[in-house]
Amino acid sequence: MLRCRDIGELLHDYLEGELEPEVRRQLDAHLADCPGCLSFLNTYRHTVSVARDLRCEDIPPELRERLRTFIDQRVQRPGVLGRIRRRLREYF
Amino acid sequence: MADGTTPDRADAPDDAALVARLRTRDERAIETLIARYETRVFGLALRLTSNRQDAEEVLQDVFWQILRHIDAFRGDAKLSSWIYRITTNTALMKLRKRAGSRELPLEESLGPAMSAEGQIVEAVPDWTRLPSDALERKELARHLAMAIEELPPDYRAVVVLRDVEGLSAAEACEVLDLSLPALKSRLHRARLFLRRRLTEHATVRHPALAQTAPPEDNDAALP
User: Fold this and answer.
1) Closest C-alpha to A10, from A48, A37, A47, A49
2) Rounded to a whole number, what is the distance in Å from the CA of B38 to chain A's nearest CA?
3) Over the stretch B21-38, which tens digit does the pLDDT of each residue have?
4) Are B190 and B155 in contact (CB under 8 A)?
5) Is B120 helix (H, G, I), strand (E, B) or coil?
């Protein structure tokens, strides 16, 4: 018989769908009978769901530009002769 | 892009081939690396540092570290995990300089109050039952972002990698060099803290929520 205090320990695996079937059944039975835990689970799960909205979907163009300039200035790129030598090594 | 990456060309190399080409300082490989990971690196850095200037410095530093140390990348981890690890460590170093040391309250005090027998003894407002126009998701996301900024660095890293970036538990463990039990424990406490902050916000916006009936009689309709 699960108590409200036990629910917290199970939430991670519950949300991941990784609970053992018997434990899952007990948890579902507890939730059906305990409005406090159900509210707690709903708000906990929604918090996790909203977090995904914070994922950055794009990077500002000026940052892209400055990043490439920064890297270009630091990478020691071979000169024309070096590039030709490298190409030749690739083929022979 | 929905997954935060710039689309590769159809003939773009996979990560293993990309690493091999990066070791020769191939210019197109460097561009492919940047295009493939810049959004993820910047997004993670921004969420961890909460500061755009710091995040840009992390972004540049991370790609420079990758190129300098690509020969040391052994390939037994995924390239993405290695990049997440460099980004997290670089961002957390910046954050720790600014954030000082903070502690999260104990788990018991982050969740609902419990009796000695382990039963909830307070009303738990369910703000997810409010109509969506009463508590907009964008508003919740904004408050959640502010709450994440309150988290101590170690907790912030876990919740950002798992819940914001969507890494699997195994990959987050690898990035943070944590055991799975340690990761779960930290993640749970961070989520409890964030949930509490959103609950506080929801009950300020909708005071009637706080008057939700106690658990024994929780059928009262929400406003």
Assistant:
1) A37
2) 7
3) 999 888 899 999 999 999
4) yes
5) strand
Cross-chain residue pair A44–B117, CB shorter than 8 Å = no
Q: Which two tokens stand for residue A18?
A: 């990784």
Q: Which residues make beta-bridge pairs with B120?
A: B114
Task: Going from the first residue of chain A to its last (92 residues), give the mean pLDDT of each consecutive group of 10, the final group possibly shorter.
Answer: 89 91 95 94 96 93 95 74 61 60
C-alpha–C-alpha distance, residues B126 and B209, integer Å: 8
Chain B hits for A74, Cβ within 8 Å: 64, 67
Q: Please report residues of B whose CB lies closer than 8 A to that of A63.
A: 42, 56, 59
Cβ–Cβ of B126/A39 closer than 8 Å? yes
pLDDT at A20: 95
Q: Do A50 and B144 touch (CB under 8 A)?
A: yes
Q: Which residues of A touch B (CB under 8 A)?
A: 3-6, 8, 11-12, 16, 34-40, 42-44, 46-48, 50-59, 63-64, 66-68, 70-71, 74-78, 86
3-state secondary structure chain A: CCCHHHHHHHHHHHHHCCCCHHHHHHHHHHHHHCHHHHHHHHHHHHHHHHHHHHCCCCCCHHHHHHHHHHHHHHCCCCCHHHHHHHHHHHHC
